[in-house]
Sequence to fold (165 residues):
Amino acid sequence: MANYKGHIAGGLIAGVTVAITISVFPSEQLAKSTGLIHEWQFLASILIISMLFGLFPDVDTNSKAQDIFFGIVFPLDIVLIWQGYIEAAAFLGLIAMLPIIGHHRGWTHKKWAMFVVPLPILLIPYLYNDKIILASAIYYSVAVAGYFSHLLLDGLILKRFKIKN
Ligand SMILES: [Zn+2]
Fold:
């Protein structure tokens, strides 16, 4: 198992890879439909999301990853509540609770989890807008990429990429 630094690096690399892939698309169209693509917040969001999901699977155990994850999620949740994003805050709180259910290297380290755990990013804006929002589709891809990097580094995807702790 890679340590938390390895997982942060893995998550960031995954996020940057997705960001570079996205930048290949005609950016004008993307800028229009996301409204954010050229802004630093967008890149910052990509990096934060990929890092958080790169750490997420180890949140099921008392680890540095858990400290960092809740160290970011807790103040973020307070900011969301303070700014009036109550639904987002509620869902963030719900997601943050999930890892405590189950044992270490249980369901959070399953391959299906990398697609299922980030699903609220895709589904919640869909439920509120009745259509898939491009920005949320991008954030979802970023989250899956970050999650994937964790499972890869844990040796759960391809054994030869496994990094020793
Ligand atoms: Zn792990």
Observations:
- The chain has a mean pLDDT of 81.
